[in-house]
Amino acid sequence: MNRLLKIAQVFIFTVLILLIGVFIWQFFDAYAQLLFIPLGILSVYYLLIYLFAKLLQQNQSKIWFYIGVVFMIIPLLAFSLAYKPMLEFSYNILQIFN
């Protein structure tokens, strides 16, 4: 298995562990539900990256590895730099459903 698949699996596993942690945390703090939407988006995104890496498993060039790593880091940077608008968006979505 190539390195990009291993890295994508680690990211997916980490997001799933965070989702389980947020699910438990929501029983103690109601605002923890705000993290479900960003983590859900990240889990779908990393799943698509994993499937793309699995598709390119036979083509193991270094450029695809670096492109994959960059595409894995970009959403982490985006969510970390824009956490307040993302939490406000999640709050608005939760208000629509309540």
What would the principal axes of the Cα set say about the shape?
elongated
Instruction: State Rg.
Output: 16 Å
Q: Given the helix and strand composition, which structural class is it?
A: mainly alpha
Helix content: over 70%
* Number of domain units: 1
The description of the largest β-sheet is: none
Q: What proportion of the residues form beta strands (DSSP E)?
A: under 5%
Q: How many E strands?
A: 0
Runs with pLDDT <50, length 5+?
none
Mean pLDDT: 88
How far apart the termini lie comes to 45 Å
What series of H and E elements makes up the topology? Answer: HHHH
How many DSSP H or I helices?
4
Topology:
Layout: H1 3-25, H2 36-55, H3 62-81, H4 83-97
Helix pairs in contact: 1-2, 1-3, 2-3
Transmembrane segments: 7-28, 34-52, 64-83
Keywords: Membrane, Transmembrane, Transmembrane helix
Task: Identify the notable features of this structure and list them briefly.
single chain, 98 residues, mainly alpha, 80% helix, elongated
